[in-house]
Amino acid sequence: MTAAGSANSTASIRVLLVDDAEDIRRLIRTALRFRGGFEVVGEAATGAEAVAQAAELHPDIVVLDLGLPDLAGRDLIARVRESSPPSQVVVFSAAEASDPSWFEDRTAGYVLKDADLDYLVDLLESVAAPRPDEAVLDLPQDLASVKEARRFVMQQLLDWGLESMRDDAFLVVSELAANALTHAASDYQVRLSLSPTALRIEICDSGTGTPEPQPPTMTQDHGRGLLMVSALSASWGIDVGPGEGSDAAGPGSGKVVWAELTRAAPSELSWSGTDD
Prior knowledge:
- This protein is an alpha/beta fold.
- The protein folds into 2 domains: 13-128, Response regulator (Rossmann fold, 3-Layer(aba) Sandwich), CATH 3.40.50.2300; 134-262, Histidine kinase-like ATPase, C-terminal domain (Heat Shock Protein 90, 2-Layer Sandwich), CATH 3.30.565.
- The protein has 8 helices and 10 strands.
- The strands form 2 sheets. The chain has a 5-stranded parallel beta sheet, sandwiched between helices.
- It is elongated, with a radius of gyration of 24 Å.
């Protein structure tokens, strides 16, 4: 099994702390040390220091207080982002945001200082976590492999934080994998990919047979599953061509049967906002 785009690295999350209160920086630094997996690569007490250190260190995350003596909050955020575009900015402020949507568009989170520090650290882990956008699993021509396909999809959705899609994805991958075994009589591959709006499930095989949805009848079972796939999916289709693992050289060998499930609105976890 391979999961393209997933990260196995154990490198620490590199953090720049920006706050004019040394005791606040110390509290965050201590919380990060106890959690583990973080490295505080720099600390700044002014906006000018923050911009300079961000440009030099390019941290993964900048934890930023807005109440600095020399630079206003919005200007500071703009300059930090300009000096280190890859860095994520998380605001840790004593004041509620006057315009939450402005900060939501430009930062990875906004946490009030009266929040529990564990919440801040959880957020930093979430912000820095890699978001793989594709996963692949090769499976044999064996009826038992359908169970493996389901297990793979379930685990991947858990890893991606898409538990709400599990039921629909479970049914879709079960049907598409069973169809590959029924119509292709070959090994096959399960591919999952994410876009901002959809989860795409693909079953790639090297067979020539293509499943077709059939009208429901009292006597025939074949084809009903694709009607269910069609009902659950925003779109689905069959692309005929070289299938995964196919040894055939000519055009038309193999196929990809795919379905796209609409994703829910992006999680608000990384935006603490000011609802409390």
